[in-house]
Write a structure and sequence with these properties.
The chain is mainly alpha-helical and 451 residues long. It contains 16 helices and no strands.
Length: 451
């Protein structure tokens, strides 16, 4: 039996595809809503980790006197930069390796399980960390483990979702990412109020385990692996970084735009507590309680925007919605940066929330529309470099700016300058989206009709 016949024989029932994986197969069978919910729910677990760990470390550095006030930003850079580099290297590499992996669980699930279990260990390490060195070391290890899971999972979604469900799945992914942010931020903020902040990361570990088990036990294996044709695993890992990916110009420009937008949003999210502390003179408890109020506004606006944006993008295209998201997000960041009062800052937060929800709903769908399906793990893994690296990159860049302004004698202005940097990132994200060529809506509609 040849390679393709063997692969076809391995394909699980209910995971119908149009062609063999080497030629760019895609699923044709529609998934029940319960399956879509389980798939997207794992995003809740992953996003909750990013949100909780970022806010946890910010609180430790700003309020617990682990470092001097004028070194908080430098410490954030030290903690974040290693995690960013590791994420960039590991995620697309493991994602591409998973394209070729043969196992009884399918080509993605072993990595999802392994990475998630390690996440639990390293989250506990961060929770117990009592120095910048310990926090940085466990953040580095967490970046290794979580990106082992993220890369293959990014490819797992295109393995399962047929063309007619891409818009719906994208909206659900966006909702779960918003829910993950809510979960992470609220658990840390509430634990600060109760005086048990380390327990927030224990709770986050449980959330990720529950969502991981739901996916692994109750969702299909997806498409069969690509045939290795005698290639070693080392060769495959090197191929993940082959320069042929640069020929996918729309993909590359979308990847750049995605990274810029998410980094801009992370600059806002990761420095809000410091903003409330320095610009408004709030205590640790006051800053975290006000943070919850801001979070409620952001989340409400995001939830209201996600599904309408997803449906509208199916009609008029994905790019127009992303352009609008960049504009609204930049406006929101500018309002927050210059406002003298919290009520006006809440207006800016609403603008940012609506823009962020629209972006999360539409950007993933556009990425799914344009990637080569045969190497979904590689391309989606590379795209999630933007998702996973945006937060540590923003912490690193924002931290440097924060300390520079603080050392210049303008500590109350330091987080406001960071937010102005966010405005610039949103603007450049819109510029870099322009070269992206979006598939025509009639072609997508034809695929949906065929399915």
């Amino acid at each position: 039996m040849d390679d393709n016949a063997t692969l076809a024989a391995r394909a699980p029932t209910g995971d119908a595809v149009e062609a063999d994986p080497e030629e760019g197969a895609r699923p044709t069978q529609l998934l029940p809503m319960t399956q879509l919910l389980r798939i997207s729910a794992y995003w809740l677990g992953l996003t909750a980790i990013d949100a909780a760990v970022g806010l946890f470390i910010t609180n430790r550095l700003e309020f617990d006197k682990l470092v001097p006030r004028d070194s908080v930003g430098t410490s954030m850079f030290f903690i974040g930069i290693g995690a960013a580099i590791v994420g960039i290297l590991i995620q697309p590499t493991v994602g591409y390796v998973s394209d070729y992996t043969v196992s009884r669980w399918g080509r993605r699930k072993p990595y999802i399980v392994f990475g998630s279990l390690l996440d639990v260990v390293f989250l506990l390490g961060i929770a117990m960390g009592n120095s910048v060195l310990m926090l940085a070391a466990f953040m580095l290890l967490l970046s290794v483990s979580t990106n082992i899971a993220r890369g293959p999972f990014q490819g797992y979604v295109p393995d399962l979702v047929a063309a007619p469900q891409v818009g719906l799945a994208s909206g659900m992914v966006g909702l779960m990412q918003v829910a993950g942010n809510v979960t992470g931020f609220l658990l840390v903020s509430l634990s600060v109020t109760l005086g048990v902040m380390p327990l927030s990361l224990v709770a986050i570990a449980i959330v990720e385990l529950v969502t991981m088990v739901s996916v692994v036990l109750r969702v299909g294996r997806g498409m069969p692996p690509r045939p290795r044709r005698g290639k070693s695993w080392t060769t495959i890992a090197r191929e993940a970084w082959a320069t042929d990916i640069l020929h996918e110009r729309s993909y590359v420009w979308l990847l750049v735009s995605r990274l810029l937008f998410l980094t801009a949003g992370s600059l806002l999210v990761n420095f809000v507590v410091i903003y409330l502390s320095r610009a408004f003179g709030m205590t640790k408890e006051e800053a975290n309680s006000t943070y919850v109020a801001i979070l409620v506004v952001v989340i409400a606006a995001s939830v209201l925007a996600i599904l309408p944006a997803s449906k509208l993008s199916d009609r008029i295209g994905r790019k127009p919605l992303i352009f609008m998201a960049c504009g609204f997000a930049a406006a929101g960041a500018a309002v927050i940066a210059i406002t003298p009062s919290i009520p006006i800052a809440l207006v800016g937060a609403a603008f940012f929330g609506a823009a962020n929800g629209s972006f999360l709903a539409v950007d993933w769908a556009l990425m799914t529309d344009i990637i080569p399906r045969a190497s979904a793990g590689r391309y989606m893994g590379m795209s999630n470099v933007a998702t996973g690296s945006a937060s540590p990159i923003s912490v690193a860049l924002g931290g440097v700016v924060l300390d520079l302004v603080t050392r210049a004698g303008f500590e109350p202005l330091s987080p406001r300058v960071v937010f102005i940097l966010s405005v610039a990132f949103f603007a450049v994200a819109a510029v870099t989206l322009r070269p992206v060529i979006e598939p025509r809506r009639d072609r997508v509609a034809a695929e949906a009709a065929a399915a």
